[in-house]
Amino acid sequence: MQSPTDSTPTVTKTGMTALSIAALGVVYGDLGTSPMYAFQEAFNPAHALKLSADNIFGVLSLIFWALIIIVTIKYATLALRADNDGEGGILALMSLAVRRFPKGSRSRAIVIALGLVGAAMFYGDSTITPAITVLSALEGLSVATPLFEHWTVPLTAGIMVALFTLQRHGTAHVGRLFGPVMLLWFLTLAVLGVYNIAQNPTVLGALNPSWGIELMAQHPGLALFLFGVVILALTGAEAMYADLGHFGAKPIRYAWYFVVLPSLVLNYFGQGALVLNDPKAVDNPFFKLVPAWGTLPLVGIATAAAIIASQSVISGAYSMTAQAIKLGYLPRMTILFTNEAQRGQIYVPFINWAMLVVILGIVFAFQSSSNLAAAYGLAVNVTMITTTVYLTLVAPRRWGWARWKTVAVFGSILLIELGFLAANSLKLDHGGWFPLLFGAVVYTLLATWKRGRGLLRRQLEEHALNLQDFVAGLSTYPPTRVEGTAIYLTPYPNTVPHALLHNLKHNKVLHERVIFLSAQTMDVPHVPPEQGIKLTPMEGGIYLLHVELGFKDEPDIQLLLKEVERLYGLEFHLMETSFFLARQTILPSKLPGMALWREVLFSWMSRNAQGASDYFRIPPNRVVELGTQVEI
To answer: Could you tell me whether strands 336-337 and 346-347 are parallel, antiparallel, or unpaired per DSSP bridges?
Structure first.
């Protein structure tokens, strides 16, 4: 069992270093590419902040202390302690938070709804990040020569098409380079920062928080604008918690404390020093940190870092989808494993191509990283707020915090993040509408599927037979028995599966051994077979097999049957076993439940869901599928 305060297994110093370098490539790609656009956006001519020494110091001070308070304290210090059996991510944290509320309570429903909002915004972040990072990297070409000015958008689109096309092949081989490339990237950020700070060391005075406070006090009308700029320097922080299960807390912390934080701070302050010395450099201070001859090499490594950042959020979207499916918030989809040695490396075709279509639309619609900056902050901000609220619910029970301590710590952080939200709300007309619209669509899909499954279950249970009564009745009116084993998959372990009733009605026979198999996904990442598999013998060769899976466990019927054989001695011969499945056809109606348009949407999602036989990896030649129509 892993420690409740640190999910990192014991490893050697060499292993810890390797994990920390690997974390650079997976966890910090998004956060590490923020210097390409965050500081520059503060002095965008379209905004009202004038370029002056005091304002430069103020902006740098705000960025520095935001990195300390939000990233270092909230995520690196606190959030990484809130693992769900070693796993992180918004859905894993939601599973922890809902445990304090009884099932069916209004409070529990609100907590779940907030989690779905956070998940929806995570998908929004996953589509905006590749667009803004690659656009900002390639915009360095126009600094090198004006000839490339009109090539930024088509080159970005080309890179996106290539990146998403290659996803089906996995990242096992190139993934080994992610960590070293990002280490080179962060070292480059640090060296460029140190070189430019040396030209004007007075910029280090911006470490004093009074500069940021004074800037907002002197320009109260710009306070919200400044919050909107600062959050751009925090994008990607959520990945520190989301990728907790891949690396553990210590490697993520070490990478932040010793590499990422120093490199980011040095680079931001280096940009500030450059603009203090040369105000004309404010139009693209990042790429002007180097002499003219170094621009193209910097564009090259920046593009590599942007691609790695994109890969990280794409993989995160796949993982989020897999968890959402198992927790019942999305219909089953085809999930392919791209690396048999690393079960976490997956590919979800539908999500892949849907993301590509959305990203290409974003690139051609917004055209530049500056235009996208307004849309970017809002998606990140909402996910951050969701995490803070959940940590507030988890801290008292998980860490034994007193109420005053919980409110003082997370209340302060929440106030800052609500300031970011107020700032981002001003950007609705300038692109902020996109993540709201996209998030609303994703939330509707998640909530509709969950609600629809509940209504479907209610309808099926109302017209179902009690399993115990049915088994008892077989001794009174025994049907004809045939050789072999029949396994009926059912989500409802207390009722008779519709597939069995149809089989008896049409074929009038029952196999000599019948197993009712129900599977349930728990709110923990993994459930050991000894705890999750329960076989209950009933009368007349009938068994009830109930399986509990973690939300990161992969369903595989053949492996499951081997575990049943190991634990209970019940042998299975696959060629003598038939699997009976029921496929429901949903008929939208005016029955009480959901709005008719949501029922139509749920019906469409159900029709396009992956079949249970594929999801549970049942051999196709052993499957018998029987259909039924259900009105909801």
So the answer is: antiparallel
Q: What is the strand order of the sheet 509-521 is part of?
A: 533-537, 542-549, 509-521, 480-489, 577-587, 623-631
For 174-191, how does the pLDDT look when each residue is reduced to its tens digit (9 = 90+)? 667 788 999 999 999 999
Looking at residue 381, its pLDDT comes to 87
Proportion of the chain above pLDDT 70, given as a percent: 95
d(CA 351, CA 129): 15
**What span, in angstroms and rounded, lies between the C-alpha atoms of 274 and 259?**
22
Residues 6+ apart with CB under 8 A from 507: none
**What are 481's two structure tokens?**
């028995």
What is the dihedral angle through the alpha carbons of 387, 389, 391, 393, rounded to the nearest 10 degrees?
-140
Q: Is 484 helix (H, G, I), strand (E, B) or coil?
A: strand
Contact 54/212 with Cβ under 8 angstroms? no
Query: Residue 491's Cα: distance from chain center in Å?
Result: 26
Question: What is the distance, to the nearest Å, from the Cα of residue 352 to the centroid of all Cα atoms in its chain?
Answer: 14
Identity of the amino acid at 584: Q
Determine how many CB atoms are found less than 10 A away from the CB of residue 397.
12
Task: Supply the DSSP symbol for 8.
Answer: P
Q: Rounded to whole angstroms, how far apart are CA atoms 390 and 405? A: 15
- Decide if 366 contacts 94 (C-beta within 8 A): no
Domain locations along the chain: 19-129+181-279+320-341+366-451, 465-631
Q: Which residues contact 117 (CB under 8 A, 6 or more apart)?
A: 382, 386, 439, 443
